[in-house]
Each structure stands twice: as C-alpha cells, then as structure tokens.
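Project standup — Tuesday

K.O.: blocked on the structure for the chain from last sprint. Re-posting the sequence here as requested.
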Amino acid sequence: MVAGVIRAPDAADAARRFSPDACRRLVVKVGSALLVSAGGEPHAAWVDTLVADVAARIAEGQQVAIVSSGAIALGARRLGLPGGGRASLEDAQAAAAAGQIALAHMWSELLSARGLTAAQVLVTLDDLEDRRRYLNASATLNRLLNLGVVPVINENDSVATAEIRFGDNDRLAARVAQAAGAQGVVLLSDIDGLYDSNPHANPDAKLIPLVERIDAAIEAMADRRSASGMGSGGMVSKIEAARIATGAGIDLAIASGRIAHALARFAETGHGTVFLGENSPGARKAWIAGGLTSGGTVRVDAGAAAALRNGRSLLPAGVTAVEGSFRRGDVVEIVDPEGKRIARGLCEYDSAEARLIVGKRSEQLADVLGHEPRAALVHRNHMALV
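H.V.: unblocked you, prediction finished:
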C-alpha cells in the first residue's frame, strides 16, 4: 500500500461526500483549459453542461460557489496580447481586466437561463490573509449563498502583483471553501486526478483514487506542469490546495472536466482523486494553518518541536533562531532543526524582541526585555500544527 493512500474500493463511497445530502456547501473550481480554447474562445457549450449540474444540485438543497479561471486567457485574445497574456505582469493585469467582464457575462447569462443569479466576487491574497478582511469575505459569501445566489469567484488579477497573489486558483478555491464554511471542494481540471507518476510521460501510471493523509510519498507524485499550458498551476498546486482544505476538515476532489456534465459524471462514477478532510480544527486555527504568507520564521530545537506536537506553547528557551521582520500578532512559520515546517502561529513579540530572548529561560526574560514578559513566544491557543 502506498503511504497516505487507502483502499481503492472506497473511492466511490468517498465521492458521495460531495453529494447534496452530505455536503451542504460545495466549492467548484474550473480550470482555464476547460473554460477557454487555445485560441481564446470561451467553451460556452461545455460550461452550460456544468451549469446544468450546478442547478440540479441547488434544486436538491446544496449551496454552490464557483471559482472560475479564464479571465487572462479570454482577455489576451481580445487585446491581441502574446503568450496568452502572460508575457509580463502588465500584460496579465491588462488581460485580466478585459477578460473578467467577458467571463462574468458568460456565467451570468448561463446561470440566469437556469433561473439562478450570479454574483461576481474578486479577491486578492490579502483579502484572505488579513484576519479582518477574511471575516468580511466570509460574511459576504455566507450571505450570498444563503440568498440562493451562485458566487463566481476569481483572483483580482488586474491589481494583484507577483508578491501579493495566489498565483493559482486551486489554492484560492481551498481558502474560499474555508471562508465560505464549505464541506467540500471539487477541482475540475484537464487531468482526472493524482497519479503515481506523470501520466503524460508514463502510460502505465496509476490513478490514486483516495488519499487519507498527505505525506512525502503523496507530494512526490505531483508534477508542476499544467497539461494545457494555459493554467498557472499544476499537480503541486492541487496538492497544496488539498493540504489547506483537508487541514480545515474539508474534503477535496480532483476530477476531469474534459467531459460534458463533469460534476454529474464525477458523482456517478467517483472517478478522480478524493482527499479526506481531517478532524476539523476551530475556525481561527484553520485560518492560521491555511495561510499562504507569514512575517517570518522561528527555528526551534528538537525538544521544543516535540513539545509543540504534544500541544504545548512555544517558549523562548526552545527557540534557536528568529528570521524575518514582523510585528506582534503577525503569523510566523515554526520549523524544526531540519527546517521542516511544523506549525504556524501568531507571535506574541515583534521580531526585534523575539531575537533578544532566543534561548532564554522564562525567569531571564524580564531582565532582558526590561518589562514584564508574556508567557510564551507563540501560545498554543494561537498556533496550528501543519
């Protein structure tokens, strides 16, 4: 048995986790290659079959949000930009601005024809990394879904920069699912799931139908390339999305979108890869764990790493180094002696003070800092293991 994977016969049952009966809220991500042809034309007929699937699920009581790629690919054709609009950041921003209108119009028209109302939601990385803005986005999505509206969500590529962007809609979908309180995410892609090796290079590659834990063996199966060349992600981004989703207790599936009625077909056949959600942490810890940015890194010794895994707070005595510049309350990465990330948390000190107390025992802190210290560098209540 491959590490992290459970028996193949359970995969069909796992697909039922995304049914309206089991999953009150579902996020469906649609990749660029499914939405737009190589020539930059929208695949409206295919999208209409997906909209029919969504309408059927909503009629059964499921609430559905769509994370839609395709704006840059659509806009590039309209503006005559080379390289699919990705030759430069400026081209991508311009293409996104032009393409987003066409993309929103297509979704609105097709959903309206099924008696559904679409709402456009454009977000940046900061909207889901800043706690207050994350809660605002969560409230908006919650209200739209409760009104029976279908939110159509995309990264706001017209203003995002290389430093402050998701860069792929796989991870965006996982973070949106957290914010929306969804129980499931389905990534419709130009590949039908995770394989034990690259299926484009190895005809004997085997599909992995079910993953209960993402470990080094699962990560090694990922391939960074997008099959179509149009998207910004590959299997690596999908594994990262699965880690974010499952860490928050959300099931995630990768399924082929290269067929009509892709969502219905996945429900019927279970063909794809399902990643099972873990026991759900609190909403605050899920937000911390699923974040994509941090202010810095705190390195700890082996004893501190073991204590953190046993649910303890991080004390300065177990810290070996502090890297980066951050303020009190910023998220920091905590790594073990081998450099492996083991936790994320809100630091109780700014980076300058944190450096002063590296390796210091609790009774030494007041003398070093000149004021009454806080009990921990990162408290367990504000920490999430990853």
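K.O.: great, moving the ticket to review. The first strand starts at residue 25 and ends at 30. The CA atoms of residues 16 and 231 lie 28 Å apart.
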